[in-house]
# Entry
Amino acid sequence: MPAYDASASEYDAIAELYDPWSRSVTEDIDFYVAEARKAGGPVVELGVGTGRIAVPVAAAGVPVIGVDSSAGMLEVCRQRAAKAGVERLLDLRLGDLRDPPVDARVRLVTSPFRSLLHLDTDADRLSALAAAFELLVPGGRFVFDVFAPSAEDVEETHGRWLEREPGIWERADWDLERRILTLRVRGHASETAMHLSWLPVEEWRALLEAAGFEVVACYGWFDLSPHKGGEDTVWLARRP
Ligand SMILES: C[S@@+](CC[C@H](N)C(=O)[O-])C[C@H]1O[C@@H](n2cnc3c(N)ncnc32)[C@H](O)[C@@H]1O
# Structure
Protein backbone atom coordinates (compact mmCIF):
# COMPACT_ATOMS: atom_id res chain seq x y z
CA MET A 1 0.00 0.00 0.00
CA PRO A 2 1.42 3.48 -0.80
CA ALA A 3 2.21 5.68 2.20
CA TYR A 4 -0.56 8.12 3.07
CA ASP A 5 -0.09 11.33 1.13
CA ALA A 6 -0.99 14.32 3.26
CA SER A 7 0.49 16.89 0.91
CA ALA A 8 -2.92 18.49 0.46
CA SER A 9 -3.57 19.25 4.16
CA GLU A 10 -4.55 22.87 4.56
CA TYR A 11 -3.23 22.66 8.13
CA ASP A 12 0.41 22.20 7.14
CA ALA A 13 0.80 25.89 6.32
CA ILE A 14 -0.45 26.96 9.76
CA ALA A 15 0.92 24.13 11.92
CA GLU A 16 3.19 26.57 13.80
CA LEU A 17 0.38 29.12 14.03
CA TYR A 18 -2.26 26.70 15.32
CA ASP A 19 -1.38 26.83 19.03
CA PRO A 20 -1.16 30.62 19.28
CA TRP A 21 -4.34 30.86 17.16
CA SER A 22 -6.31 28.50 19.43
CA ARG A 23 -4.71 29.73 22.66
CA SER A 24 -8.04 30.77 24.21
CA VAL A 25 -9.71 27.41 23.50
CA THR A 26 -9.34 25.65 26.84
CA GLU A 27 -12.90 24.91 27.87
CA ASP A 28 -12.87 21.34 26.49
CA ILE A 29 -9.57 20.08 27.96
CA ASP A 30 -10.78 18.94 31.39
CA PHE A 31 -13.81 17.27 29.80
CA TYR A 32 -11.73 15.13 27.42
CA VAL A 33 -9.15 14.36 30.11
CA ALA A 34 -11.97 13.17 32.41
CA GLU A 35 -13.38 10.94 29.63
CA ALA A 36 -9.92 9.47 29.04
CA ARG A 37 -9.39 8.79 32.75
CA LYS A 38 -12.79 7.06 32.89
CA ALA A 39 -11.90 4.87 29.90
CA GLY A 40 -8.59 4.08 31.54
CA GLY A 41 -6.91 2.50 28.54
CA PRO A 42 -5.44 3.91 25.37
CA VAL A 43 -7.51 6.53 23.61
CA VAL A 44 -7.62 6.97 19.86
CA GLU A 45 -7.92 10.65 18.90
CA LEU A 46 -9.02 11.25 15.32
CA GLY A 47 -7.67 14.60 14.12
CA VAL A 48 -5.13 14.89 16.96
CA GLY A 49 -3.59 18.08 15.58
CA THR A 50 -0.86 19.61 17.75
CA GLY A 51 -1.91 17.63 20.82
CA ARG A 52 -3.89 20.44 22.44
CA ILE A 53 -6.02 17.68 24.03
CA ALA A 54 -3.75 14.64 23.59
CA VAL A 55 -0.83 16.07 25.57
CA PRO A 56 -2.94 16.82 28.70
CA VAL A 57 -4.55 13.35 28.34
CA ALA A 58 -1.08 11.75 28.21
CA ALA A 59 0.01 13.94 31.13
CA ALA A 60 -2.88 12.37 33.08
CA GLY A 61 -1.24 8.99 32.42
CA VAL A 62 -3.52 7.76 29.62
CA PRO A 63 -1.77 6.65 26.40
CA VAL A 64 -3.04 8.21 23.16
CA ILE A 65 -2.91 6.96 19.59
CA GLY A 66 -3.30 10.14 17.55
CA VAL A 67 -4.21 10.18 13.86
CA ASP A 68 -3.95 13.25 11.67
CA SER A 69 -3.67 13.98 7.96
CA SER A 70 -1.26 16.89 8.48
CA ALA A 71 2.40 15.97 8.86
CA GLY A 72 3.08 19.54 10.03
CA MET A 73 0.53 19.35 12.85
CA LEU A 74 1.93 15.98 13.96
CA GLU A 75 5.45 17.42 14.06
CA VAL A 76 4.30 20.27 16.34
CA CYS A 77 2.48 17.67 18.46
CA ARG A 78 5.69 15.66 18.78
CA GLN A 79 7.59 18.74 19.99
CA ARG A 80 4.84 19.65 22.43
CA ALA A 81 4.76 16.09 23.84
CA ALA A 82 8.56 16.10 24.25
CA LYS A 83 8.42 19.42 26.09
CA ALA A 84 5.77 18.01 28.44
CA GLY A 85 7.81 14.83 28.90
CA VAL A 86 5.00 12.56 27.65
CA GLU A 87 6.23 11.49 24.18
CA ARG A 88 6.39 7.90 25.45
CA LEU A 89 2.59 7.95 25.86
CA LEU A 90 1.82 9.38 22.42
CA ASP A 91 1.73 7.20 19.32
CA LEU A 92 1.25 9.58 16.38
CA ARG A 93 0.20 8.34 12.97
CA LEU A 94 -0.16 10.15 9.68
CA GLY A 95 -3.44 9.10 8.09
CA ASP A 96 -7.04 9.84 7.30
CA LEU A 97 -9.67 9.66 10.01
CA ARG A 98 -12.04 7.97 7.55
CA ASP A 99 -9.62 5.06 7.37
CA PRO A 100 -7.32 5.37 10.37
CA PRO A 101 -4.13 3.29 10.34
CA VAL A 102 -4.89 1.71 13.73
CA ASP A 103 -5.45 -1.97 14.49
CA ALA A 104 -5.97 -1.59 18.24
CA ARG A 105 -9.46 -1.84 19.73
CA VAL A 106 -10.07 0.63 22.56
CA ARG A 107 -12.68 1.84 25.04
CA LEU A 108 -12.60 5.47 23.91
CA VAL A 109 -12.31 7.19 20.55
CA THR A 110 -12.45 11.00 20.46
CA SER A 111 -12.49 13.73 17.86
CA PRO A 112 -12.26 17.05 19.73
CA PHE A 113 -12.69 20.59 18.45
CA ARG A 114 -14.78 20.10 15.38
CA SER A 115 -12.43 17.93 13.35
CA LEU A 116 -15.40 16.06 11.83
CA LEU A 117 -16.56 19.31 10.21
CA HIS A 118 -13.73 18.86 7.72
CA LEU A 119 -15.84 16.15 6.09
CA ASP A 120 -18.32 17.55 3.62
CA THR A 121 -20.50 14.66 2.47
CA ASP A 122 -22.65 12.19 4.38
CA ALA A 123 -20.67 9.37 2.75
CA ASP A 124 -17.44 10.76 4.24
CA ARG A 125 -19.07 11.38 7.62
CA LEU A 126 -20.41 7.84 7.67
CA SER A 127 -16.97 6.48 6.78
CA ALA A 128 -15.49 8.37 9.75
CA LEU A 129 -18.25 7.23 12.12
CA ALA A 130 -17.92 3.64 10.90
CA ALA A 131 -14.16 3.83 11.45
CA ALA A 132 -14.67 5.11 15.01
CA PHE A 133 -17.19 2.31 15.61
CA GLU A 134 -14.72 -0.29 14.33
CA LEU A 135 -12.00 0.97 16.66
CA LEU A 136 -14.17 0.46 19.73
CA VAL A 137 -14.71 -2.62 21.83
CA PRO A 138 -18.40 -3.30 22.57
CA GLY A 139 -19.53 -0.83 25.24
CA GLY A 140 -16.81 1.63 24.16
CA ARG A 141 -17.59 5.28 23.50
CA PHE A 142 -17.04 7.78 20.73
CA VAL A 143 -16.92 11.35 22.05
CA PHE A 144 -16.68 14.39 19.80
CA ASP A 145 -17.86 17.96 19.45
CA VAL A 146 -19.12 19.96 16.51
CA PHE A 147 -21.00 23.19 15.94
CA ALA A 148 -23.62 24.80 13.75
CA PRO A 149 -23.55 28.60 13.54
CA SER A 150 -26.14 30.92 15.05
CA ALA A 151 -27.63 33.74 12.98
CA GLU A 152 -25.86 36.27 15.28
CA ASP A 153 -22.47 34.63 14.76
CA VAL A 154 -22.92 34.72 10.98
CA GLU A 155 -24.03 38.33 11.07
CA GLU A 156 -21.13 39.44 13.27
CA THR A 157 -18.38 37.68 11.35
CA HIS A 158 -19.37 37.18 7.71
CA GLY A 159 -16.77 38.45 5.26
CA ARG A 160 -14.73 40.35 7.90
CA TRP A 161 -11.11 39.99 8.87
CA LEU A 162 -11.07 39.87 12.69
CA GLU A 163 -7.98 39.81 14.88
CA ARG A 164 -8.53 36.65 16.93
CA GLU A 165 -5.20 36.85 18.77
CA PRO A 166 -2.53 39.56 18.51
CA GLY A 167 -1.21 39.38 14.93
CA ILE A 168 -3.47 36.45 13.98
CA TRP A 169 -6.39 37.28 11.74
CA GLU A 170 -9.38 35.15 10.83
CA ARG A 171 -12.09 35.59 8.22
CA ALA A 172 -15.31 33.56 7.99
CA ASP A 173 -17.41 33.36 4.83
CA TRP A 174 -20.64 31.51 5.49
CA ASP A 175 -22.55 29.73 2.72
CA LEU A 176 -25.80 29.10 4.55
CA GLU A 177 -27.46 27.25 1.69
CA ARG A 178 -24.66 24.70 1.31
CA ARG A 179 -23.77 24.84 5.04
CA ILE A 180 -20.13 25.47 4.28
CA LEU A 181 -17.88 27.84 6.18
CA THR A 182 -14.74 28.99 4.40
CA LEU A 183 -12.33 29.97 7.14
CA ARG A 184 -9.19 31.93 6.34
CA VAL A 185 -6.42 32.29 8.88
CA ARG A 186 -3.46 34.63 8.48
CA GLY A 187 -0.41 35.25 10.65
CA HIS A 188 2.81 37.19 10.04
CA ALA A 189 4.45 34.40 8.04
CA SER A 190 1.70 32.03 6.97
CA GLU A 191 -1.89 31.71 5.95
CA THR A 192 -4.41 29.11 4.89
CA ALA A 193 -8.02 28.60 3.88
CA MET A 194 -10.13 25.67 4.96
CA HIS A 195 -13.70 24.50 4.60
CA LEU A 196 -15.92 23.34 7.42
CA SER A 197 -19.27 21.80 6.76
CA TRP A 198 -21.92 21.77 9.49
CA LEU A 199 -25.12 19.78 10.05
CA PRO A 200 -28.25 20.24 12.15
CA VAL A 201 -28.29 18.22 15.38
CA GLU A 202 -30.88 15.74 14.12
CA GLU A 203 -28.69 14.87 11.12
CA TRP A 204 -25.70 14.07 13.35
CA ARG A 205 -27.96 11.89 15.46
CA ALA A 206 -29.29 10.05 12.38
CA LEU A 207 -25.75 9.46 11.06
CA LEU A 208 -24.56 8.13 14.43
CA GLU A 209 -27.50 5.73 14.54
CA ALA A 210 -26.92 4.69 10.92
CA ALA A 211 -23.33 3.82 11.87
CA GLY A 212 -24.65 1.55 14.65
CA PHE A 213 -24.11 3.84 17.67
CA GLU A 214 -26.46 4.42 20.57
CA VAL A 215 -26.50 8.11 21.44
CA VAL A 216 -25.80 8.36 25.17
CA ALA A 217 -25.88 12.17 25.40
CA CYS A 218 -25.84 15.33 23.35
CA TYR A 219 -24.61 18.15 25.56
CA GLY A 220 -24.64 21.83 24.73
CA TRP A 221 -21.33 22.50 26.43
CA PHE A 222 -18.39 20.79 28.16
CA ASP A 223 -19.98 21.35 31.58
CA LEU A 224 -22.45 18.64 30.54
CA SER A 225 -25.40 21.01 30.34
CA PRO A 226 -28.04 19.72 27.91
CA HIS A 227 -28.11 21.06 24.37
CA LYS A 228 -30.85 23.68 24.14
CA GLY A 229 -30.35 24.87 20.60
CA GLY A 230 -26.97 26.63 20.98
CA GLU A 231 -24.13 26.47 18.46
CA ASP A 232 -22.09 23.72 20.11
CA THR A 233 -22.91 20.07 20.56
CA VAL A 234 -20.84 17.55 22.49
CA TRP A 235 -21.75 13.97 21.60
CA LEU A 236 -21.30 10.78 23.61
CA ALA A 237 -22.13 7.71 21.56
CA ARG A 238 -21.74 4.08 22.57
CA ARG A 239 -20.96 1.00 20.54
CA PRO A 240 -23.58 -1.54 21.78
C1 LIG B 1 -9.58 21.92 14.42
S1 LIG B 1 -8.21 20.85 14.37
C2 LIG B 1 -8.43 19.95 15.92
C3 LIG B 1 -7.13 19.41 16.44
C4 LIG B 1 -7.19 18.84 17.86
N1 LIG B 1 -8.13 17.74 17.96
C5 LIG B 1 -7.60 19.91 18.86
O1 LIG B 1 -8.56 19.69 19.61
O2 LIG B 1 -6.93 20.96 18.91
C6 LIG B 1 -8.66 19.65 13.15
C7 LIG B 1 -7.59 18.62 12.89
O3 LIG B 1 -8.15 17.59 12.06
C8 LIG B 1 -7.21 17.22 11.08
N2 LIG B 1 -7.94 16.64 9.95
C9 LIG B 1 -8.79 17.26 9.10
N3 LIG B 1 -9.29 16.38 8.20
C10 LIG B 1 -8.71 15.17 8.50
C11 LIG B 1 -8.82 13.88 7.94
N4 LIG B 1 -9.62 13.64 6.89
N5 LIG B 1 -8.10 12.88 8.49
C12 LIG B 1 -7.28 13.11 9.55
N6 LIG B 1 -7.15 14.33 10.12
C13 LIG B 1 -7.86 15.34 9.61
C14 LIG B 1 -6.47 18.49 10.74
O4 LIG B 1 -5.21 18.24 10.14
C15 LIG B 1 -6.38 19.14 12.13
O5 LIG B 1 -5.18 18.78 12.78
The mean pLDDT is 96. The first strand starts at residue 43 and ends at 46. The radius of gyration is 17 Å. The longest helix spans residues 71-84.
